[in-house]
Amino acid sequence: MSKSKYVTQVCTSCGRESKMEIIGAVVGAENKIWYRCTRCHHSMMVDTAVKSKQDNVITYNREECVDYSPEKVFAVGVSIYHTDWDDMGKVTSKEKTSSGGNAIWVQFEKNGIKKLIENLQLAD
Length: 124
Ligand SMILES: [Zn+2]
Fold this sequence. Notes:
Elements: E1 6-10, E2 17-26, E3 29-37, E4 43-47, H1 48-53, E5 66-67, E6 79-82, E7 87-96, E8 102-108, E9 112-118
Parallel strand pairs: 5-6
Antiparallel strand pairs: 1-2, 2-3, 3-4, 6-7, 7-8, 8-9
The structure holds zinc ion.
Zinc ion binds near residues 14, 18, 39 and 42.
């Protein structure tokens, strides 16, 4: 993969989206790069580690997943595996259902965002 010598970024000096010339890495800071705005020629340091964090890519690892079951309780951020759908997901939030039960919102790899029941109290 060839890397372009230029990146497009909003300049902190002139405040406009400009072509930035990559000048080089910052000594002693691996994730920081010096850019120079081709518009106003202002140089600035960009932290590439912060940028990659914003991508917010969810990675699914089957070994980390807990098998989903309606009677279980799941914490936000936990990876789950839905055996019926053969799909892995991550719990993104929780909510109370209108019937007073508990539900979790799960971002699944294949099925997208789904709402599932948790902490189901089985009537005896
Ligand atoms: Zn500029």
